[in-house]
Write a sequence for this structure.
């Protein structure tokens, strides 16, 4: 029995190794596969036939014949349309959904607006209708749907798919069974994954973004609020109470009068909030009426992008505001480095538009604050995935689970 068990494990390892080679190689012959995998052609052909029957591999054509004039070998190719993944993210004001093939290529996108504090039943209804719309518009084979991942806006128990608390949807109450409700209403019986959207955004950077090939990363999603995703040793970290990533509520200025949405004073989130930046700009209008931030208009009409744009043009007041927020970012990030020691920190969200001045100063200040005598090689980079980062992380997670 032990021998049979070992043989089964070895077969599984070989199949997984071959599929990974195929996914990364495009088109390949059995001879080339044999060299890469170090397996006999007989063993390889059994594996190839297994995957052809499952619809994950197909014969793409014939290769060149050997010098001896033998038969032209078959060329095999991974079938990206052998399965489809669906990813969704619930944001404060919208629900974004996509369907992709196994190469994570987006085939269709559905964007639905959400009202402020939209009722749970309405959001659930929009999740189900978005799912149906994705399938109808692409006409994909429902039997090939390998799973659905939903990123939530709040503290989430990913084991049970429960949204424990969502600050932007207080009407939901506590411990909402999102996964259970989706399972009951979804027309297809497929695997469903529910997790905090920040974690999917981190997974996106790890799998298709700037942090590929990095084992340890932290993402910071900054704007009006501040969230984080943490991956250590290639694994998403959640914690015993699913609080890993709630770095926005670290106290970095306990004597400050700045009150956070959580009720605390001097939280990381509150000190780097774009709302705080805009408020400070408006408050000091009388001192800097000629600032490019206001561009000759009313201070009531400005937003954070006006501050970013003015700072890129060298505006003195805008640079002062950027220096202030950079300082608080540097303190928070220095604490994150001491907590997690990541290889890379990826900035996502609105601050991606802040420009080179912000990120260069941020790198400099972090090195000055956090154990300056110890050489640290933590890279701080902007995300390049844009507003699709959450859904790309969600579908990447579905595909990762499928190929496990």
């Amino acid at each position: 029995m032990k021998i049979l068990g070992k043989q089964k494990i070895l077969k599984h390892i070989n199949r997984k190794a071959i599929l990974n080679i195929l996914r990364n190689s495009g088109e390949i012959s059995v001879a080339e596969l044999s060299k890469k995998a170090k397996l006999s052609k007989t063993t390889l052909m059994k594996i190839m036939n297994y995957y052809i029957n499952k619809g994950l591999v197909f014969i793409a054509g014939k290769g060149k014949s050997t010098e001896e004039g033998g038969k032209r070998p078959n060329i095999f190719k991974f079938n990206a349309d052998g399965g489809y993944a669906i990813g969704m993210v619930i944001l404060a004001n919208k629900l974004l959904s996509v369907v992709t093939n196994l190469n994570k290529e987006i085939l269709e996108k559905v964007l639905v607006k959400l009202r402020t504090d939209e009722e749970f039943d309405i959001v659930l209804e929009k999740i189900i209708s978005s799912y149906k719309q994705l399938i109808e518009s692409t006409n994909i084979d429902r039997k090939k749907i390998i799973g659905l991942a939903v990123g939530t806006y709040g503290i989430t128990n990913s084991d049970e798919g429960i949204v424990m608390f969502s600050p932007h949807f207080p009407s939901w109450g506590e411990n909402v069974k999102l996964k259970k409700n989706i399972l009951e209403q979804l027309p297809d019986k497929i695997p469903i994954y529910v997790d905090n959207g920040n974690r999917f955004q981190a997974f996106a950077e790890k799998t298709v973004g700037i942090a590929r090939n990095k084992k340890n990363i932290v993402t910071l999603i900054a704007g009006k609020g501040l969230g984080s995703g943490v991956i250590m040793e290639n694994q998403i970290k959640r914690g015993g109470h699913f609080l890993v990533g709630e770095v926005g509520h670290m106290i970095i200025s306990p004597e400050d009068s700045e009150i956070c949405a959580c009720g605390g004073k001097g939280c990381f989130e509150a000190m780097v909030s774009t709302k705080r930046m805009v408020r400070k700009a408006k408050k000091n209008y009388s001192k800097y009426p000629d600032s490019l931030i206001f561009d000759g208009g009313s201070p009531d009409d400005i937003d954070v992008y006006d501050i970013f744009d003015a700072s890129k043009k060298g505006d003195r007041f805008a640079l002062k505001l950027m220096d202030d927020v950079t300082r608080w970012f540097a303190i928070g990030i220095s604490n994150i480095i001491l907590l997690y020691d990541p290889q890379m920190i990826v900035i996502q969200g609105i601050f991606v538009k802040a420009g080179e001045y912000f990120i260069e100063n941020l790198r400099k200040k972090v090195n000055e604050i956090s154990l300056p005598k110890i050489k640290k090689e933590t890279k701080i980079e902007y995300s390049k995935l844009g507003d699709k980062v959450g859904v790309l992380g969600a579908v990447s997670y579905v595909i990762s689970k499928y190929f496990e």
